[in-house]
Amino acid sequence: MSTPRERALASIGHVQPEKIPHQIGFTSDAHRKMCEFYGDPDFGGKIGNCIAGLNLDSFGWEEVGDCIWRDEFGVLWNRKVDKDIGVVCNQVVDLDAVESFEFPPLPSVDLMSRIAGLRDAHPDKLAASGFGFSLFERAWTLAGMENILIWMVAEPKALHRLLDRILENNIARIKRILETDVDMVYFGDDWGQQSGLIMGPDLWRQFIKPRVKEMYGMVKKAGKFVMIHSCGKVQEIFPDLIEIGLDVFNPFQPEVMDPFEMKKQFGKELCFNGGISTQRTLPYGTPEEVREETLRLIEEVGEAGGLIIAPAHAIPGDAKPENIHAMLEAIKNQ
Prior knowledge:
Elements: H1 4-12, H2 28-38, E1 51-53, E2 62-65, E3 68-70, E4 76-78, E5 87-88, H3 109-116, H4 118-121, E6 126-131, H5 136-143, H6 145-154, H7 156-178, E7 184-188, E8 192-193, E9 196-197, H8 200-221, E10 225-229, H9 238-243, E11 248-250, H10 259-266, E12 271-276, H11 281-284, H12 287-301, E13 307-311, H13 321-332
């Protein structure tokens, strides 16, 4: 029997794996419900995920008030409703601070040693590291979403400078990651909404693409895989992402893109991670509907590799435990 790592390498390389690999993530509410459903607080470590990851932005957070957390950049997040990420509730960069804002220190030696040890600690899994909020998201968390979108039109020079400074910080972080033995570098940067790109393709190509290209290029030059997480309807830039070296696209939301059509159009160049509906099937479907959706993705999108099966996002708290169980069983028994 092949290992999850071997199956992931086959899928990313567009070779039919023995079984389609999977990578299942949970929000804290969904994880708690499944611990109760299985009567096992350690069930998550037994589901056979194919990636062992440790991200740079998982650390440096501090609780500073009632459900208020401060990240390493000084941004405050209200987690009263969203317990896993939160909602930004301050602004740390304005036009006057674009040049003077001080970025946090680079990751500690201890954290980097833990990342460097992923391969040895999890030899049966793909080792990965990276960071979310990697460019556009980092800019708007610092300066505010409305401001960043306004600056794209009204203050392009200032925005280019802010993005360049974020890029400089990212490059230093990527260099640290590439000193380790990871297989893949992960970037999170939501560009989309349900109806399309937040800023549209032209502004994306002007402000985002050149900098993303530089980051991806560093990773590819080092012989590593590149993975992006970008929620929303962003398939109009798939050709751009393929051009600049993307290997794995997540979250592959069936609510905004047809997984089977995406496989036909881009399945020879991109490996898709996701595909199972977290907005419809897992919360509102039946176990049988979940099983059918999961198996069809495995059989059709997973043909000749190119799929790491998963829910389209970390499983939300409103997903039915029996549906999550049906998904896990379908993946296990494929």
